[in-house]
């Protein structure tokens, strides 16, 4: 068939022939020949690409039979679409409008206004992507400056006039700070027991949209599947609009009062889009830093270590944070793009105590006129300020006797964290940490920082184990479960030794006089008869001053029976 056949009906004449003659019969006609939509005149966008302004798009003109229905979805894209066409731009985020116009807001600044125009009829779908040529910007203020009044010279009483005052220069008005990007920051006083909070600035929740892969009726299949899961209809997020997805779309439509035909059209997707938009969220992870962080940074500061299970918008410092600087990793959307920042710190954590001032010694009393001098008063001693409690390196406590318990104290060291806060991220989480958590949960995967098919499959297994939505996507809920695993992996390690001679101070290298104790790998050890006359030490591995270290602690006295 050709374009000339569109709108017509097909019939066929069948003729049977033999030596005796022939006879013909006409079939019933087919349905009317339809035509898949195609663009005749491309849609055009117009308006101002500024915050508060409205951009509109024409429908264009479309070929197709039946006459196509035209729908719209607006996006904010990181790069401009140079030529209108059906090719899908990458990394675009839905701007929320499904009409022929869109009013832009501060989070869209720096992005390019882009609209997907879709023409649909019973024969199929066609679409065009059209964009404004310039990025969305903040409107330039037009306030007229009020010039400084020119002073009127007052004539001097003397014939010689005083110098004519030079009028103040008319200031160039400084426009008020535009409603652009305001980075997250901390507020509060970093004191033990007092909460420090995050101000999220102009950031918004990170989008859950997955705008890539195959489409169905102009909508990304992954987004359809994500919306079904958000509606508690478990669906594999694989980008395949197969029988499972179609059946689940039917269920979704029925539960939302829509025509239950399994076809995700504009009305169905508009309901799904609201679910996806409402799922956007900002996530947090708190860090304790040995040195201040002067300004927000996307890279994790080298002196910072993560605080396990601190994942809300506020954190209350504990005694172990004294002297450290709290910072928080915020993951959200800035100008429509998901991004991560580590906030600047606001000072070191204090214990909240007010130091006792050193009293001024009493003045030496004047000598009295009495012949017998008064006894010289004792000098009022200057009190020595109480030194803060200092806990040093790990050490052993207990009695070195057969059957008694020796305990390895950890001093002011902290447990070894399994986190590897480096390399690529996925949804704002370091991929290596995701992989470490998977291994910690007994799911073997290579820790290489690559979120490939093996890691995605392992995440699905983890989600299934934890009763989470199985989609292979590490979001806030999945990461929270992974952090629980990471907490279980955060620990000190110990190894006990018996020595023929004492160790008087901590050393980093095992002395040649010491040999390992079988099964001595816990924080405690009970000497046995074979240890009598020997000196016990333990190798403790923990974190000191932000670095993982191992130390062999000073030995006990010789073990007695």
List keywords for this structure.
29 strands, Muramoyl-pentapeptide Carboxypeptidase, domain 1, PGBD-like_sf, Immunoglobulin-like, PGBDSf, 5 domains, Peptidoglycan-bd-like, four-stranded antiparallel sheet, alpha+beta
List the strand order in the largest sheet.
8-7-10-11
- Report the span from N to C terminus: 103 Å
CATH topology of the largest domain: Immunoglobulin-like
The total domain count is 5
Q: So what's the CATH class of the largest domain?
A: Mainly Beta
Mean pLDDT: 79
Structural class of the helices, strands and pairings?
A: alpha+beta
Strand content: 25-35%
SS element count, helices: 6
Kindly state the number of beta strands.
29
The poorly predicted ranges are 167-180, 377-391
What would you call the shape? elongated
Rg calc: 37 Å
Biggest β-sheet: count, sense, barrel?
4 strands, antiparallel
Pfam families: PG_binding_1 (PF01471)
Biased composition (Low complexity): 141-161, 333-355
Domain Peptidoglycan binding-like: 221-272, 429-482
InterPro entries: Peptidoglycan-bd-like (IPR002477), PGBD-like_sf (IPR036365), PGBDSf (IPR036366)
